Amino acid sequence: MIINLALAIVSLSALLVSLRVLRGPSWGDRIMAFDFLGMNLVVLFALLAVRTKLMAMLDATVLLSLLAFLSTIAMTRYLLLGRVMK
Amino acid sequence: MSGFLHDFSALMTAWDINLLRDIPILFGSVFVLTAAVGVLRFPDLYTRLHASSKLVTLGSAGIYLGVAADFSDVAAFTRVLAVLLFQFLTTPLSAYLIAQASYLRGLPAVLHTPDEGKADAWDIFGAAQDISQIRRLQAVQEEEELPSPHSG
Protein backbone atom coordinates (compact mmCIF):
# COMPACT_ATOMS: atom_id res chain seq x y z
CA MET A 1 0.00 0.00 0.00
CA ILE A 2 1.35 3.38 -1.04
CA ILE A 3 0.11 5.09 2.14
CA ASN A 4 2.67 3.19 4.24
CA LEU A 5 5.46 4.32 1.92
CA ALA A 6 4.27 7.93 2.11
CA LEU A 7 4.09 7.71 5.93
CA ALA A 8 7.68 6.42 6.00
CA ILE A 9 8.89 9.23 3.72
CA VAL A 10 7.16 11.96 5.75
CA SER A 11 8.49 10.50 9.02
CA LEU A 12 12.02 10.44 7.58
CA SER A 13 11.68 14.12 6.64
CA ALA A 14 10.51 14.88 10.20
CA LEU A 15 13.62 13.15 11.56
CA LEU A 16 15.90 15.16 9.24
CA VAL A 17 14.25 18.44 10.29
CA SER A 18 14.56 17.53 13.97
CA LEU A 19 18.32 17.35 13.34
CA ARG A 20 18.06 20.98 12.22
CA VAL A 21 16.18 21.79 15.46
CA LEU A 22 19.06 20.35 17.47
CA ARG A 23 21.82 21.94 15.36
CA GLY A 24 20.28 25.24 14.25
CA PRO A 25 22.82 28.00 14.86
CA SER A 26 20.26 30.74 15.43
CA TRP A 27 16.82 31.02 16.98
CA GLY A 28 15.22 31.64 13.60
CA ASP A 29 16.38 28.24 12.38
CA ARG A 30 14.74 26.53 15.34
CA ILE A 31 11.47 28.42 14.88
CA MET A 32 11.46 27.57 11.17
CA ALA A 33 12.16 23.92 11.92
CA PHE A 34 9.31 23.81 14.45
CA ASP A 35 7.02 25.36 11.85
CA PHE A 36 8.13 22.65 9.42
CA LEU A 37 7.46 19.98 12.04
CA GLY A 38 3.97 21.37 12.60
CA MET A 39 3.13 21.21 8.91
CA ASN A 40 4.64 17.73 8.80
CA LEU A 41 2.34 16.69 11.62
CA VAL A 42 -0.68 17.99 9.68
CA VAL A 43 0.39 15.94 6.66
CA LEU A 44 0.89 12.86 8.87
CA PHE A 45 -2.64 13.23 10.26
CA ALA A 46 -4.06 13.51 6.74
CA LEU A 47 -2.25 10.31 5.73
CA LEU A 48 -3.48 8.57 8.89
CA ALA A 49 -7.02 9.67 8.00
CA VAL A 50 -6.65 7.82 4.70
CA ARG A 51 -5.21 4.77 6.42
CA THR A 52 -7.74 4.48 9.24
CA LYS A 53 -10.66 5.84 7.15
CA LEU A 54 -11.67 8.16 9.99
CA MET A 55 -12.95 11.61 9.09
CA ALA A 56 -12.32 12.94 12.61
CA MET A 57 -8.60 12.93 11.71
CA LEU A 58 -9.37 15.62 9.10
CA ASP A 59 -10.90 17.84 11.80
CA ALA A 60 -7.67 17.27 13.72
CA THR A 61 -5.69 18.51 10.70
CA VAL A 62 -7.67 21.77 10.65
CA LEU A 63 -6.98 22.37 14.35
CA LEU A 64 -3.31 21.38 14.08
CA SER A 65 -2.65 23.75 11.19
CA LEU A 66 -4.23 26.59 13.20
CA LEU A 67 -2.10 25.73 16.25
CA ALA A 68 1.11 25.52 14.21
CA PHE A 69 0.50 28.95 12.66
CA LEU A 70 -0.37 30.60 15.98
CA SER A 71 2.66 29.14 17.77
CA THR A 72 4.95 30.30 14.96
CA ILE A 73 3.52 33.81 15.20
CA ALA A 74 3.98 33.84 18.98
CA MET A 75 7.59 32.66 18.76
CA THR A 76 8.51 35.20 16.07
CA ARG A 77 6.97 38.01 18.13
CA TYR A 78 8.96 36.84 21.13
CA LEU A 79 12.13 36.75 19.02
CA LEU A 80 11.54 40.23 17.62
CA LEU A 81 10.03 42.17 20.53
CA GLY A 82 10.97 40.17 23.63
CA ARG A 83 7.31 39.76 24.52
CA VAL A 84 4.33 38.01 23.00
CA MET A 85 1.54 40.45 23.95
CA LYS A 86 1.38 43.88 25.48
CA MET B 1 -4.64 -7.97 -24.49
CA SER B 2 -7.78 -8.37 -22.42
CA GLY B 3 -5.93 -10.95 -20.36
CA PHE B 4 -3.19 -8.43 -19.65
CA LEU B 5 -5.77 -5.82 -18.64
CA HIS B 6 -7.47 -8.35 -16.40
CA ASP B 7 -4.14 -9.21 -14.74
CA PHE B 8 -3.35 -5.53 -14.28
CA SER B 9 -6.68 -4.75 -12.66
CA ALA B 10 -6.31 -7.82 -10.44
CA LEU B 11 -2.85 -6.61 -9.38
CA MET B 12 -4.24 -3.15 -8.61
CA THR B 13 -7.00 -4.56 -6.45
CA ALA B 14 -4.58 -6.96 -4.74
CA TRP B 15 -2.12 -4.22 -3.81
CA ASP B 16 -4.91 -1.69 -3.14
CA ILE B 17 -3.66 0.76 -5.77
CA ASN B 18 -5.87 3.73 -6.59
CA LEU B 19 -4.02 5.86 -9.13
CA LEU B 20 -6.09 8.99 -8.51
CA ARG B 21 -5.06 8.81 -4.84
CA ASP B 22 -1.56 7.37 -5.01
CA ILE B 23 0.09 9.54 -7.65
CA PRO B 24 -0.55 12.90 -5.85
CA ILE B 25 0.39 11.38 -2.49
CA LEU B 26 3.72 10.04 -3.78
CA PHE B 27 4.41 13.35 -5.54
CA GLY B 28 3.71 15.31 -2.37
CA SER B 29 5.68 13.08 -0.01
CA VAL B 30 8.74 13.17 -2.29
CA PHE B 31 8.51 16.98 -2.28
CA VAL B 32 8.27 17.03 1.52
CA LEU B 33 11.41 14.88 1.74
CA THR B 34 13.18 17.25 -0.67
CA ALA B 35 12.19 20.18 1.55
CA ALA B 36 13.66 18.39 4.59
CA VAL B 37 16.95 17.79 2.77
CA GLY B 38 17.02 21.45 1.76
CA VAL B 39 16.37 22.59 5.33
CA LEU B 40 19.20 20.36 6.51
CA ARG B 41 21.77 21.33 3.90
CA PHE B 42 21.30 24.98 2.87
CA PRO B 43 23.94 27.34 4.28
CA ASP B 44 21.76 30.14 5.59
CA LEU B 45 18.50 30.83 7.43
CA TYR B 46 17.00 32.74 4.50
CA THR B 47 17.74 30.01 1.97
CA ARG B 48 16.41 27.42 4.40
CA LEU B 49 13.20 29.42 4.66
CA HIS B 50 12.95 29.34 0.87
CA ALA B 51 13.19 25.53 0.89
CA SER B 52 10.83 25.05 3.81
CA SER B 53 8.00 27.38 2.76
CA LYS B 54 7.81 26.72 -0.98
CA LEU B 55 8.43 22.99 -1.15
CA VAL B 56 6.28 22.13 1.86
CA THR B 57 3.38 24.13 0.41
CA LEU B 58 3.58 22.21 -2.88
CA GLY B 59 4.07 18.81 -1.23
CA SER B 60 1.29 19.18 1.31
CA ALA B 61 -1.06 20.40 -1.45
CA GLY B 62 -0.39 17.20 -3.38
CA ILE B 63 -0.97 15.06 -0.31
CA TYR B 64 -4.26 16.82 0.51
CA LEU B 65 -5.50 16.38 -3.06
CA GLY B 66 -4.73 12.67 -2.80
CA VAL B 67 -6.58 12.43 0.52
CA ALA B 68 -9.61 14.19 -0.97
CA ALA B 69 -9.58 11.81 -3.95
CA ASP B 70 -9.48 8.84 -1.58
CA PHE B 71 -12.45 9.91 0.55
CA SER B 72 -14.50 11.21 -2.45
CA ASP B 73 -16.99 12.75 -0.03
CA VAL B 74 -18.24 16.32 0.23
CA ALA B 75 -17.59 16.60 3.97
CA ALA B 76 -14.01 15.35 3.66
CA PHE B 77 -13.41 17.50 0.60
CA THR B 78 -14.47 20.70 2.38
CA ARG B 79 -12.19 19.97 5.34
CA VAL B 80 -9.22 19.22 3.10
CA LEU B 81 -9.91 22.33 1.03
CA ALA B 82 -10.07 24.42 4.22
CA VAL B 83 -6.69 23.11 5.38
CA LEU B 84 -5.18 23.64 1.91
CA LEU B 85 -6.38 27.24 1.61
CA PHE B 86 -5.33 28.00 5.18
CA GLN B 87 -1.83 26.68 4.56
CA PHE B 88 -1.56 28.54 1.26
CA LEU B 89 -2.38 31.74 3.16
CA THR B 90 -0.32 31.20 6.31
CA THR B 91 2.90 29.52 5.14
CA PRO B 92 4.29 32.59 3.29
CA LEU B 93 3.17 34.77 6.20
CA SER B 94 5.03 32.76 8.83
CA ALA B 95 8.13 32.51 6.62
CA TYR B 96 8.04 36.28 6.11
CA LEU B 97 7.69 36.89 9.86
CA ILE B 98 10.62 34.60 10.71
CA ALA B 99 12.81 36.30 8.10
CA GLN B 100 11.77 39.76 9.30
CA ALA B 101 12.45 38.99 12.95
CA SER B 102 15.84 37.45 12.19
CA TYR B 103 16.83 40.31 9.88
CA LEU B 104 15.82 43.00 12.34
CA ARG B 105 17.68 41.13 15.08
CA GLY B 106 20.79 41.38 12.92
CA LEU B 107 21.33 37.91 11.56
CA PRO B 108 23.72 38.22 8.61
CA ALA B 109 23.09 36.43 5.35
CA VAL B 110 25.91 34.37 3.91
CA LEU B 111 25.58 36.08 0.53
CA HIS B 112 24.77 39.58 1.81
CA THR B 113 27.52 41.14 -0.32
CA PRO B 114 28.22 40.46 -3.99
CA ASP B 115 30.53 37.56 -4.61
CA GLU B 116 34.18 38.66 -4.75
CA GLY B 117 35.63 35.25 -5.20
CA LYS B 118 34.49 34.22 -1.72
CA ALA B 119 32.05 31.55 -2.89
CA ASP B 120 34.88 29.11 -3.50
CA ALA B 121 36.59 30.00 -0.23
CA TRP B 122 33.40 29.49 1.77
CA ASP B 123 32.58 26.32 -0.15
CA ILE B 124 28.95 27.35 -0.40
CA PHE B 125 27.91 24.63 -2.79
CA GLY B 126 29.98 21.97 -1.07
CA ALA B 127 29.19 22.00 2.62
CA ALA B 128 26.83 23.94 4.87
CA GLN B 129 28.52 26.86 6.60
CA ASP B 130 27.98 27.49 10.26
CA ILE B 131 26.61 30.99 10.77
CA SER B 132 27.94 31.28 14.28
CA GLN B 133 31.47 30.68 12.95
CA ILE B 134 31.03 33.50 10.42
CA ARG B 135 29.76 35.84 13.12
CA ARG B 136 32.74 34.98 15.33
CA LEU B 137 35.10 35.79 12.46
CA GLN B 138 33.32 39.10 11.85
CA ALA B 139 33.55 40.00 15.55
CA VAL B 140 37.30 39.27 15.52
CA GLN B 141 37.73 41.46 12.44
CA GLU B 142 35.81 44.33 14.03
CA GLU B 143 37.97 44.09 17.15
CA GLU B 144 41.06 44.30 15.00
CA GLU B 145 39.74 47.31 13.11
CA LEU B 146 38.69 49.28 16.20
CA PRO B 147 41.48 51.09 18.04
CA SER B 148 42.25 49.68 21.45
CA PRO B 149 41.21 51.96 24.35
CA HIS B 150 44.56 51.47 26.13
CA SER B 151 46.78 52.20 23.13
CA GLY B 152 46.30 55.97 22.94
UniProtKB/TrEMBL annotation, chain A:
It holds the Pfam family MrpF_PhaF. Keywords: Cell membrane, Membrane, Transmembrane, Transmembrane helix, Transport. The keyword Transmembrane applies. It is a multi-pass membrane protein. It is found in: Cell membrane. It comes from the Bacteria. The chain crosses the membrane at residues 31-50, 62-80. Belongs to the CPA3 antiporters (TC 2.A.63) subunit F family. This is Cation transporter. It comes from Deinococcus piscis.
TrEMBL record, chain B:
It holds the Pfam family PhaG_MnhG_YufB. Keywords: Membrane, Transmembrane, Transmembrane helix. InterPro entries: PhaG_MnhG_YufB. The chain crosses the membrane at residues 23-43, 55-71, 77-99. Coiled coil: none annotated. The keyword Ribosomal protein does not apply. This is Cation:proton antiporter.
